[in-house]
Amino acid sequence: MMQRLVSSGAASSSAGSGAGAATGSYNSLALVLLSLASVISSGSSFSFSRNLHDVEQDVAEDASLYSQEMRLSAPEITQQKQSQQQQQLERYVSIRSSPSSYISVPAGHRLELKCEVDGSPPPKVYWIKGENPERQVEQLERESVGELSYTAISRELSKLVIDCVTPQDQGLVHCVGLSGDKMVISQPTVLNVQGGNVSLSSRPECQKGGASAPPVITRHRPIYFSEMGSTVELPCEASGKPRPHVYWLDGEGNPLMDPRFAVQPDGNLLISNIRWQDMDGYKCIAKSPLGETEAVTFLYPAAKNISTIAVRLG
């Protein structure tokens, strides 16, 4: 049985409702997750240090180098099954942002909606039209193939793209986040389609087969925390006409040559046995003859044997 939450779509209220389910070590990890995601999205630079003493000395010498310092206490690793089970129960899901409550679009035009969901384990995002979003998601889950499930925290960014809006698209649209047995549903977006009687045959994107369209990355995870030694899957789904080619580069723009890194047929990046050295911002690039676009996933391997990690923001 899934636990359902309803989100207002605002970052502050939705984060509060979801974070209450995360306890212990995940509270600290979630705070770092949200802070780092904001830094990355704003384009700020950042660097990491394993030596807290060195960081504190640097701050004392020149406080202007740092806008913020955060400490993350890694969870104590034990062999007790009770402790392992407790970690598995520390789950949460919350909607960070979702579309506005009312959107009006002329028939035949293009529509792009965005939704961001935080969660542990890594969440999935569904776009649901009409009534009973919870029931529709449960049906989709019964028909879907399960993804990797492990101790991790991530943010998922999903886009709903409609190249040609028609009167049939009018109605309610929900963003639904799913993490384990927890579900969060945004407040509905009322989609109003203007000029429903206008002929759409003159618009190439509305004809059978549609018109050419540049690539758009419709799903990726901007930030991802997972324990060292785990296998992670970084999604990157893209749409466009013709269908774009998806490939990955490291933070410096180099191809991924390590055999532990494998790009799947669907464009997702699978990384086996992640290490501390794998910390990086990995670029997913979707390219077609009409152009290219990219999205970055920052991967943070949470070190079990390091008691303190200092994050420098500049």
TrEMBL record:
<dbReference type="InterPro" id="IPR036179">
    <property type="entry name" value="Ig-like_dom_sf"/>
</dbReference>
<dbReference type="InterPro" id="IPR007110">
    <property type="entry name" value="Ig-like_dom"/>
</dbReference>
<dbReference type="InterPro" id="IPR050467">
    <property type="entry name" value="LRFN"/>
</dbReference>
<dbReference type="InterPro" id="IPR003598">
    <property type="entry name" value="Ig_sub2"/>
</dbReference>
<keyword id="KW-0325">Glycoprotein</keyword>
<dbReference type="Pfam" id="PF13927">
    <property type="entry name" value="Ig_3"/>
</dbReference>
<keyword id="KW-0732">Signal</keyword>
<protein>
    <recommendedName>
        <fullName>Ig-like domain-containing protein</fullName>
    </recommendedName>
</protein>
<dbReference type="InterPro" id="IPR013783">
    <property type="entry name" value="Ig-like_fold"/>
</dbReference>
<feature type="domain" description="Ig-like">
    <location>
        <begin position="75"/>
        <end position="175"/>
    </location>
</feature>
<dbReference type="InterPro" id="IPR003599">
    <property type="entry name" value="Ig_sub"/>
</dbReference>
<feature type="domain" description="Ig-like">
    <location>
        <begin position="214"/>
        <end position="297"/>
    </location>
</feature>
